[in-house]
């Protein structure tokens, strides 16, 4: 059965993936494990879910992967590992709203990379949509979601989140390029494997224990894999074959809005008026960008 038979459009799938990804910050906050450990097991468990499907149904395609595509998929996996490590750690130093918002400044880097590398140029209307969304994201960051005033610790957390934005932009651009030629499951299996191996090395380098964690932590790791991993990132990688990288990256800005709402109900982090207004502006920017794409496609 085809996706069209189920009436699943790429934009609908992307909206679902953004919602699934919004749960990540909450799960990370609930976890008491080191950030790199949580990131490692999230990716490892996600790999364990998708790899059997890839090996059973796409074995011949694995054998046909070009060295270039394989190499760029590995680079994408390393970039994703740096993204996770930096972003997860940032959540220990700044608010959920600020961290998730700053990491989602990635549309700026995606738009630049898409124009320079992929030849996907952004028109005036899309630029307006990106600008609106970024302004809203900045407003949410300044809101601070009820956290303490800016300090050296929060600045460090914000800097880590920005590093996460740059590296995830590279991951999105690689996915947009390679997914035109490689099926979803072979691609994500290579990417997630490279990502997990990178995080495995990082955990060891930081001197963290690999296994001495209570049952609650293992359940949180599994939740990170199933929700943000399978239903978040993996669905986004499916969407990247059908939608321009800029549309995907701007729509991903909905994640801080969802995460802030979840933080309100689950972490008692009450957003202030600036954060609320910023979230509305983010949604307006997403609307402008996606509507512009629909207009061009009609």
UniProtKB/TrEMBL annotation:
The chain crosses the membrane at residues 40-58, 70-88, 94-119, 126-143, 155-173, 185-206, 218-240, 247-267, 273-291. It comes from the Archaea. Residues 14-141, 156-290 form the EamA domain. One of its GO terms (cellular component) is membrane. Keywords: Membrane, Transmembrane, Transmembrane helix. Signal peptide: none annotated. PANTHER family: ACYL-MALONYL CONDENSING ENZYME-RELATED, EAMA DOMAIN-CONTAINING PROTEIN. This is EamA/RhaT family transporter. It comes from Natronococcus pandeyae. The lineage of its organism: Archaea, Methanobacteriati, Methanobacteriota, Stenosarchaea group, Halobacteria.
């Amino acid at each position: 059965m085809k996706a069209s038979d189920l009436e699943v459009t790429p934009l609908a799938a992307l909206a679902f993936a953004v919602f699934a990804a919004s749960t990540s910050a909450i799960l990370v906050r609930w976890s008491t494990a080191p950030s790199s450990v949580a990131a490692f097991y999230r990716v490892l468990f996600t790999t364990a879910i998708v790899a059997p499907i890839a090996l059973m149904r796409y074995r011949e395609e694995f054998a046909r992967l070009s060295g270039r595509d394989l190499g760029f998929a590995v680079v994408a996996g390393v970039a994703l590992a740096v993204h996770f490590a930096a972003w997860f750690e940032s959540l220990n130093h700044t608010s959920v709203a600020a961290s998730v918002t700053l990491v989602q400044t990635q549309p700026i880097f995606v738009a630049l990379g898409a124009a320079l590398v992929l030849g996907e140029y952004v028109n005036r209307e899309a630029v307006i949509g990106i600008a609106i969304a970024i302004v809203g994201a900045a407003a949410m960051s300044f809101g601070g979601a009820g956290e303490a005033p800016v300090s050296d610790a929060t600045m460090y957390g914000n800097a880590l989140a920005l590093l996460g934005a740059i590296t995830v932009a590279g991951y999105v651009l690689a996915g947009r390029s390679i997914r035109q030629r490689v099926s979803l499951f072979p691609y994500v299996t290579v990417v997630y494997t490279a990502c997990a191996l990178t995080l495995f090395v990082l955990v060891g380098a930081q001197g963290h224990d690999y296994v001495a964690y209570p049952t609650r932590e293992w359940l949180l790791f599994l939740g990170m894999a199933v929700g943000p991993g399978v239903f978040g990132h993996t669905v986004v990688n499916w969407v990247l074959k059908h939608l321009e990288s800029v549309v995907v990256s701007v729509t991903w800005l909905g994640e801080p809005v969802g995460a802030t709402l979840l933080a309100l109900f689950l972490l008692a982090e009450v957003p202030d008026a600036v954060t609320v207004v910023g979230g509305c502006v983010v949604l307006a920017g997403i609307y402008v960008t996606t509507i512009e794409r629909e207009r061009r496609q009609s």
